[in-house]
Amino acid sequence: MTRADLRSDGVWSVESSLEGKRVNSLAADRRISGRVYAGTQANGIWRSDDAGRTWDQAGLSGQAIKTIAVSPLEPGLIYAGCKPASLYVSADHGAAWNELQALRRTRKWWWFSPAEPPDWGAYPQALALSPEDPNLILAGIELGGVLRSTDGGVTWSGHRRGAVLDCHSLTFHASDGRRVYEGGGSGSGAACSLDGGITWQQPRAGLGAKYGWMVAADAIRPDVWYLSASDQPNPLKGQFVPPAHVEGKARGRIYRSMGGGAWECLSGGLPEPLDFMAYALIAEPGVSGRLYAGLSNGDIWQTDDFGEAWRRLPVNMGGIHRTMILV
Fold first, then answer.
1. Which one of 2.130.10.10, 3.20.20.10, 1.10.760.10, 1.10.1740.110 gives the CATH number of domain 21-159?
2. How many Cβ atoms from other residues are within 10 Å of residue 109's Cβ?
3. C-alpha dihedral (77, 82, 87, 89), degrees to nearest 10
4. How far is residue 310's CA from residue 103's CA, in Å, rounded to a whole number?
5. Where in 91-149 does DSSP place strands (E)?
6. Which entry of 33, 87, 193, 326 is 20 to 30 Å from 108 by CA?
7. Domain ranges of the chain
8. Distance between CA atoms of 240 and 266, rounded to whole angstroms?
9. What is the pLDDT of residues 223-261, one digit of tens each?
């Protein structure tokens, strides 16, 4: 894991931590300054209380943690999605964990992940927690769909019709519990819900069918959201790996939708197309118009005007392939 700091003298510093561990997911606890959780591929969950400088083991040792979500409403409440497809919960900041068995029972025989041979096992790629209802959770399965729970994960619906089956990212708006956004590798590549994940639409105008990855929504305006996407692979042309995952040839772009309008492909200084996929999009909390894009080559781009103009920050993270957070 790599950590970047902007020092008081205006110079960026970059340092690594959790050496030797593959980090799949990061989540910050906004209630506790500096508190960050990291989910690893084979070493469980780790917790930092100094914004990622040092780490301590925080449970689920030996588990493959694919996604972590920290409740914005209930202090100490954390969910972890694991492979094989399963869900765990802690009510005490990770001191103790219990499995919520319902997700295993909900699994369908056809769930699989094209990203992880040779077992192709499916798993929750994303967990989204409502900012208004502590019992409302959405789980995005790669590849299996979007599931909804209204009782804190005790029971689950099946796939919500209209959502993208191959879920890559899933998030509620920071303050509007009606708005949910999804990026995925099937269908149009993006989907949204205006009723807390009950019903979904896949807006295609200006987008068509894309291989979508990350979504983010403006911190203040729920009607403004973004998608990083690339072209769908074409097996007829010998393309079996999505271009998004081909370093230096990702053919990636960042799109924006405002006010329910058609998707717009953003440029404003960004490379066209992006040779390295934007696996991370982050809207800065409390700041309207500001968005960060983290690319697989480690570059970070920033816009302060909803994507009209971009600048590359003078720092490189070495590589951003899974996740990036602001602390």
1. 2.130.10.10
2. 5
3. -20
4. 41
5. 98-99, 123-129, 137-142, 145-149
6. 193
7. 21-159, 187-306
8. 27
9. 999 999 999 988 777 778 899 999 999 999 999 999 999
**DSSP-assigned states of every residue in 137-175:** EEEEEETTEEEEESSTTSS---PPTTS-SSEEEEEE-SS
Contact 123, 85 (CB under 8 A): yes
Q: Are 73 and 108 in contact (CB under 8 A)?
A: no
CA angle 293, 167, 36 (to 5 degrees): 55
3-class secondary-structure state, position 93: coil
What's the whole-number mean pLDDT along residues 293-309? 97
The tokens for 34 are 């500096």
> Do 124 and 66 contact (CB within 8 A), yes or no?
yes
Rg (CA), the chain: 18
- How many residues does the structure list for the chain? 327
Rounded to whole angstroms, the Cα distance separating 136 from 207 reads: 30
Contacts of 134 (CB under 8 A, 6+ apart): 71, 73, 74, 77, 152
Q: What is the DSSP letter of 92?
A: S
* pLDDT tens-digit series, residues 43-56: 999 999 999 999 99
